[in-house]
Write a sequence for this structure.
């Protein structure tokens, strides 16, 4: 296949026309106005790629601090630093998302001392800590007790029996008393209608008909006070960002009362609100739109992920990735956390169908880290899903430090804040410039393609080190199947 400059935007213009006509999302004028309004603030912010060290022990993160910094990551998102169930034989990742107490860090990943040591190790290499926090519910312990005291009586006794040890781990509060009692929870009922916002935000998340579910916290002054005290304690340790787990299940009143100006000052905060697409989708309108309108917090860019996922399917078009925000298919740049995969996708049967093919996931990362907009999040884990890559090794254990990822992050940091301009937009090919600094070329097809377009200086591919010279004011590029170039 051969692509010339004369037809570079034909498919994109068709996609734009079809999208605006069928979705009636925004007009070209209002889109351009929105982009102009946020462009100045986008350029003023520093580049930030977040490593999601999903379910990594705090000591393991500390041991890798130097490599994380050398790779170009600027932040690390860690699993919830709270008290949760632990066992000498280990526990499942989801148990980190069932809090027993906020006042101490004591879980399978480490304790308060380990967390502080990790924070200092990362800070030494210029890396910020983001903490995952769970404020919607407490642990489901109905299998062993009928009351709603957190932590349970046995844990309160353990605090007293091992007073010296636990006092050294305390973040705030009085460990001789429970954190929450029965009056701090809403009446129990399971969510059945997942399209009913009131039910989703007031009911219990359950694992099935026989599961009593996760006890849902009440929005009241006492609960808000404890959650804010916890956030302030983590800020005092040096935490610089928060991910709000299950934000879809929290009422706007709850979010607004916790995340006030004093909490969000100098912090980067984003919520997890899973939707199946952009502005025309019902889930977006029911859950994500009110969140974006009523708070100033960021969010996972599930609309963009849906757009990317569809673009890399056989019937999808790469032209849809030129400017998805204008068509309601992505979040505003300054609110967006962008990604190619999140921890729920490989570890939850409901979402496993959204795992991109391995080669397509790398292409998706080249787009996420090559485009203008959002804060990219790179996922890694210690293989709780037991999914293997093509080489027979756990798929996401080492991908975070793969040489390809290092070059993509290098490109992202180098061109950060430079405007994105389309060069070629086609069903199989996407080429765009990042100001004068860089060019991204992505070929999702099964064939090598030759790409030709006007340019004004020689370029070098960061991944291979290959230099491309101008020929009659043109760059002539041979792009292998299922591959990408990041030219500088």
């Amino acid at each position: 296949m051969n692509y010339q400059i004369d037809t570079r935007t034909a498919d994109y213009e068709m996609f734009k026309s079809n999208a605006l006509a069928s979705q009636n999302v925004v007009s070209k004028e209002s889109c351009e106005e929105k982009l102009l309004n946020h462009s100045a603030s986008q350029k003023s912010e520093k580049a930030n790629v977040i490593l999601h060290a999903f379910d990594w022990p705090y000591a393991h993160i500390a041991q890798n601090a130097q490599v994380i910094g050398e790779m170009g990551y600027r932040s690390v998102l860690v699993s919830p630093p709270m008290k949760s169930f632990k066992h000498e034989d280990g526990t499942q990742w989801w148990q980190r998302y069932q809090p027993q107490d906020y006042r101490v860090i004591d879980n399978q990943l480490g304790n308060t001392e380990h967390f502080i040591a990790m924070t200092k190790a990362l800070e030494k290499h210029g890396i910020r800590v983001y903490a995952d926090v769970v404020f919607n519910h407490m642990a489901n312990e109905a299998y062993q007790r009928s009351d709603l005291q957190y932590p349970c009586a046995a844990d309160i006794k353990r605090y007293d029996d091992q007073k010296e040890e636990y006092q050294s781990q305390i973040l705030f509060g009085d460990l001789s008393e429970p954190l929450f009692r029965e009056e701090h929870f809403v009446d129990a009922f399971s969510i059945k209608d997942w399209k009913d916002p009131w039910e989703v935000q007031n009911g219990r998340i359950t694992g099935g008909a026989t599961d009593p579910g996760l006890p849902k916290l009440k929005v009241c002054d006492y609960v808000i006070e404890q959650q804010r005290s916890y956030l302030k304690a983590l800020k005092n340790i040096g935490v610089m960002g928060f991910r709000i787990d299950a934000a879809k299940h929290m009422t706007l009143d709850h979010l607004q009362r916790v995340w006030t100006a004093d909490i969000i000052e100098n912090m980067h905060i984003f919520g997890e609100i899973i939707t199946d697409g952009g502005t025309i989708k019902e889930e977006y309108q029911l859950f994500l739109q009110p969140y974006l309108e009523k708070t100033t917090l960021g969010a996972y860019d599930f609309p963009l992920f849906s757009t990317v996922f569809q673009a890399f399917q056989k019937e999808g078009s790469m032209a849809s990735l030129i400017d998805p925000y204008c068509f309601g298919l992505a979040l505003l740049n300054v609110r967006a956390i962008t990604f190619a995969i999140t921890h729920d996708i490989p570890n939850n049967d409901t979402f496993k169908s959204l795992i991109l093919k391995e080669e397509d996931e790398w292409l998706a990362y080249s787009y996420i880290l090559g485009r203008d907009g959002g804060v990219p999040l790179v996922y890694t884990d210690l293989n709780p899903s037991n999914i293997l890559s093509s080489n027979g090794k756990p798929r996401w254990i080492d991908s975070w430090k793969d040489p390809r990822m290092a070059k993509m992050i290098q490109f992202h940091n180098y061109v950060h804040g430079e405007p994105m301009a389309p060069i070629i937009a086609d069903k199989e090919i996407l080429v765009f410039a990042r100001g004068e600094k860089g060019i991204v070329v992505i070929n999702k097809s099964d064939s090598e393609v030759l790409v030709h377009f006007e340019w004004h200086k020689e370029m070098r591919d960061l991944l291979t080190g290959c230099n491309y010279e101008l020929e009659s004011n043109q760059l002539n590029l041979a792009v292998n199947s299922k591959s990408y170039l990041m030219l500088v």
Remarks:
- Confidence is low (pLDDT under 50) at residues 5-10, 19-44.
- The chain has one domain: 24-417.
- The radius of gyration is 24 Å.
